[in-house]
Amino acid sequence: MSESSKTLEDQLKKLRCHFTWNLQEKEGDNIAIEEKLIGQMESRATYNKHKVYNLMAYIKYVQGDYIEAMARLREAEELCRSNSNQSPAKYLVIYGNYAWLNYILKEHEMAQLYVEKVESIYQELQQSNDPNLFNCPEIYGEQGWTLLIYGGRYYEQAKECFEKALESAPEDPDWNTGYAMAIYRLESFQDGKYPELNPKDSVVKTLLGLKLQDLKEKDEGLKYIEEALEQTPVNPYVLRYVAKFYRLARMYDEALRVLKTALGFQPKSAFILSQIGLCYKYKFIDVKQSKHPNPNRQKEINEHIQKAIYYLELALEYEKSFKYVYVALANMYQEKNEIQKAEELFQTLLGFESLTRSEKQSYRFEYGKFAFFGKKSEAEAINHYKEALMIPGSFREGWKCENELKKRAERKLRYNPEDSLALGLLGLVYKVQGENAEAIRYYEKALKNDVNNGEYTRALSELRNQDN
């Protein structure tokens, strides 16, 4: 590498843009993000739509489509230029992306030109009478918005970015909305933060409504939700959050009405399709569990199952990484008695290499429930619960597995106090709970009736070694 190239690369690394924000580059994630951005191109206000095209340019670069990436950057630049009220700081991320993309394409002179454009803007901002301009809230805000789009692992960092942006631009509606969304998704929304979040903003209203619902203030929350929907009836974010409120309130028909409106703006949104499918699933459950006389009960059940399957299948067609959809769809196929299809969905889901340990335990537990209720196989269900319980870590589904295994073991022992399988299951439960003395006692009993059982022998040896 020549000295000039090395110097240019050093300059590029100092730029604040998508290429230096350490964004993940998994193909599936980027496909999902691209789908979100396409919807936002239609719904975002013109004054900040350049951020959508800017991020889309980066997505196209990751996908290897450099020509399209350049085209998106030009569109982002043109959007800024067409709005005469834009601060020059709006160009900083765009020009940073231009510099990196040209460098990657071996167009070093053009890359250097854009580096110099960035430096020129900084000099202009430094000479301004407004010190807040030089703090560049636009960069912090755009980074926060980008991190929010990329999902869970970035929410804390997104919140910090919006906080920095709001220090210099406390009234900016975009940064207030982003900050509210980051806080809500981190589940750290506090009553004292409400006045800071620009409650006139429709997205913020929906988030306030959801939080009030979470605090058991449903009526007050509904007021915010309905105001937000009346204020901006075509904003995809508003529609999604309104639908979530209705769904959590078990107002499924209202949720479906809003979701289908949103689907009109984003017909290929896997998220919206999945939420419609879930609403039909919950409607099915309501009808199935209802104690009220209903001459159309079976017809409604069949219709809800069929619609749930249709929308959930469509969601997976557009986005195969929506893990929760596999479980919901498998449940619906189980209700339709299409056991093989449900089985295939669970096997596909548990074959994902990207599953966290928590997800492995959760989905293995669901597989166990399916084995017991769908396949009518207690033995297979027990194996799934055991496998889930042995996954390292303390997760929510662990205690559910413990309860299932303990319940089945105690039932078996009522019929046969010497049942070695039941005794071994209790040994496992107590072992996982850290009650070694009880675990040893049950494993010893189990081995008396199943002397050659290697699993019990190994567990007993391990427990005794821990006590020594």
TrEMBL record:
Q: Which UniProt keywords apply?
A: Repeat, TPR repeat
**Which terms under GO biological process does the entry name?**
defense response to virus
A Pfam family reported for this protein in Swiss-Prot or TrEMBL:
TPR_7
Q: What is this protein called?
A: Tetratricopeptide repeat protein
Q: Which organism's genome codes for this protein?
A: Leptobrachium leishanense
- GO CC annotations on file: cytosol
Q: What start-end ranges are recorded for coiled-coil regions in this protein?
A: none
Family to which this protein belongs: Belongs to the IFIT family.
Gene3D superfamilies xref list: Tetratricopeptide repeat domain (1.25.40.10)
Mapped TPR repeat ranges: 420-453
Highest taxon listed in the record's lineage: Eukaryota
Transmembrane segments annotated in the record for this chain: none
